[in-house]
Amino acid sequence: MKKVRTVEWKNGRVVMLDQRLLPNREVYRIYKDPKDVIAAIRDLVVRGAPAIGVSAAMGLALGAQKLPKDRFAKEFEKLCRAFAAARPTAVNLFWAIERMRRLVEANGQLSVETLRKMLEAEAIAIYREDLDANRRLSEFGAELLPSKGTVLTHCNAGGLATAGIGTALGVILAARDAGKKLSVFADETRPVLQGARLTAWELKKARAPVTVITDNMAGHFMQQGMIDAVVVGTDRTAANGDVANKIGTYAVAVLAARHGIPFYVAAPTTSIDLNCPDGSKIPIEERAADEVSHFHGKPSTPKGVKVANPAFDVTPAKLVTAIITENGVAKGGYKRNLAKLVRASGPVAPAAPRKRTKAR
Ligand code: MRU
Predict the structure, then answer these.
(1) Per the confidence metrics, is the pTM higher than 0.90?
(2) Domain spanning 7-135 has what CATH number?
(3) Atom 6 of ligand 1: nearest residue by CA position
(4) Which residues does a 6 A CB cutoff place in the pocket of ligand 1?
């Protein structure tokens, strides 16, 4: 399986594939200012929970290079807060920031030069760990899928959303590598089209058979007996197993339950928030109205009409057949089982913002 180069640390710079331009153009952006990395996260140059976490860690390492030595800790804290305001839902962002912040706090006695090197090494470690988690999670998940059939996915939880081979797409591709005869239905995922633009692009590159459908077709194909399993990613899974993921995921989960189709969530432990008791406490990002009111830059609604644009929804744990992590699979009993799986990775991520937030 060949990995997509989504976000990388290269010669003291952050390099990202500009996902806004896919599938038409493959353009890499080189960032040397942390403010531009924050803007890249906010504006979806990079997106997908794990990739956002990795980008923030790299952005902080970048920022640390330029912060004044005499006010380093204070300025670093300011930068952490600026990154935390980029997007509210994906907990990987807060997890990565906290890991970088703790490194500075725990090593305040060291020289700024040493701290800068340590922050760079930490960001690279976060990148490598995500890559490894993708691989392990994919192997666990591959075993759950049938030996042949069609898997539906929503949004993009592939290499473009991570540092590695992806989570939901990693599971599907690992199953195919293991000889399972699987094809994919990709929901187009209105309004930003992560499924039509990104998932289809990745699967085509991986030579995996993919059919793009509009979001409102999923029920029809399930009713026709054409979908054998659903696998999606997550931006934040609460301690009780409630799953926040791209808007529309909840509807897919309800349909899957109605048709007796297993609904799997591929969730690296960095996307599980044990400090968040249930889905009602997950902040749901409300994005700019023009994502809905415009299509390809042209208005698709009457001028001035009201638009709602929540970027995520919450699927209740009871609709989730299994949650697949890099440390193993939880099939129900989520409160106890997720805690065990997350703790197998080390210290718990800190609490993240709780209120509903506008990104722009
Ligand atoms: O708004 P996005 O594109 O960042 O939303 C991404 C998703 O909802 C993904 O499904 C989720 O982050 C999991 S990615 C492995």
Answers:
(1) yes
(2) 1.20.120.420
(3) 48
(4) 47-50, 90, 155, 157, 161-162, 167, 194, 233-235, 245-246, 311
